[in-house]
C-alpha cells in the first residue's frame, strides 16, 4: 500500500528502516514534544519498526506510515483509526534535517487526500502541545481548524501542558482547492 505525492511515498515500514528510525527519533529536538524519550536504542527501534510493519492501515487503532524521500526514511505519520472506521487522529514526525522544506505538509496533504477521497473518512483530528507552534502552523496550513485549547490538560515529561485541538471534516476538504494528486502505483 502506497500513497504518492510529488516528492514522497507514504509506505509501510520495512526492517531496513530501523537504523534511520532510531537516528531521527533519538534527536532531542524531534523527541521534545513527542511521547518517547531520546535516545531510542537500535534494539527498541527494530522492535518498533517490526510492529509497525505488521500493522493494518484499515483496522481500528494506530498505523504508522513511513515517509520516504527517494528511498530514504525521513519521518513517519501516525493514524489512529476509530472503531467506526469513519474518523481518525493524525500525528507526524519528521527528521530535523528535512524540516522547513515542505515535506511534512506534503506528506500530510497526501495522506489527507487518500483518507478523505479514497477511503471517504468523515473527520480527522489532531492534537498538539500548545508550545509546539511549528506543528500548530502546519496543521492550519494544510486546512485543519483549531477547535479548542485544553489548559493544563496533559502530564507530559514531568510537567502539565496545554493541548491545542484541531479538526478537519471531509466536506471542508472536498470544498477547498486541492492540488492534483500524483498518479498512484
From TrEMBL:
Record's keyword terms, sorted:
Transferase
User: Which residue range or ranges hold the N-acetyltransferase domain?
Assistant: 8-171
Annotated TM spans = none
Q: Name one Pfam family in it.
A: Acetyltransf_3
Keyword Iron assigned: no
Q: Which domain of life is it from?
A: Bacteria
An example Gene Ontology molecular-function term: acyltransferase activity, transferring groups other than amino-acyl groups
Q: Is the keyword Transferase assigned to this protein? A: yes
Q: Which PANTHER family match?
A: GNAT FAMILY, PUTATIVE (AFU_ORTHOLOGUE AFUA_3G00765)-RELATED-RELATED (PTHR43792), N-ACETYLTRANSFERASE DOMAIN-CONTAINING PROTEIN (PTHR43792:SF1)
> What protein does this entry describe?
GNAT family N-acetyltransferase
Species for this entry: Kribbella jiaozuonensis
Amino acid at each position: 500500500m502506497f500513497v504518492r505525492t510529488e516528492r514522497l511515498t507514504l509506505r509501510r515500514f520495512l526492517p531496513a528502516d530501523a537504523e534511520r528510525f532510531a537516528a531521527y527519533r533519538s534527536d532531542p529536538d524531534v523527541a521534545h514534544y513527542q511521547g518517547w524519550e531520546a535516545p531510542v536504542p537500535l534494539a527498541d527501534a527494530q522492535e518498533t519498526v517490526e510492529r509497525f510493519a505488521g500493522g493494518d492501515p484499515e483496522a481500528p487503532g494506530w498505523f504508522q506510515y513511513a515517509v520516504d524521500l527517494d528511498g530514504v526514511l525521513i519521518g513517519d505519520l501516525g493514524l489512529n483509526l476509530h472503531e467506526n472506521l469513519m474518523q481518525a487522529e493524525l500525528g507526524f514526525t519528521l527528521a530535523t534535517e528535512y524540516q522547513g522544506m515542505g515535506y511534512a505538509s506534503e506528506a500530510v496533504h497526501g495522506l489527507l487526500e487518500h483518507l478523505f477521497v479514497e477511503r471517504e473518512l468523515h473527520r480527522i483530528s489532531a492534537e498538539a502541545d500548545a508550545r509546539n507552534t511549528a506543528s500548530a502552523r502546519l496543521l492550519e496550513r494544510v486546512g485543519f481548524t483549531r477547535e479548542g485549547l485544553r489548559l493544563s490538560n496533559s502530564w507530559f515529561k514531568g510537567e502539565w501542558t496545554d493541548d491545542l485541538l484541531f479538526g478537519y471534516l471531509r466536506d471542508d476538504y472536498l470544498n477547498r482547492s486541492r492540488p492534483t494528486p500524483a498518479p498512484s502505483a
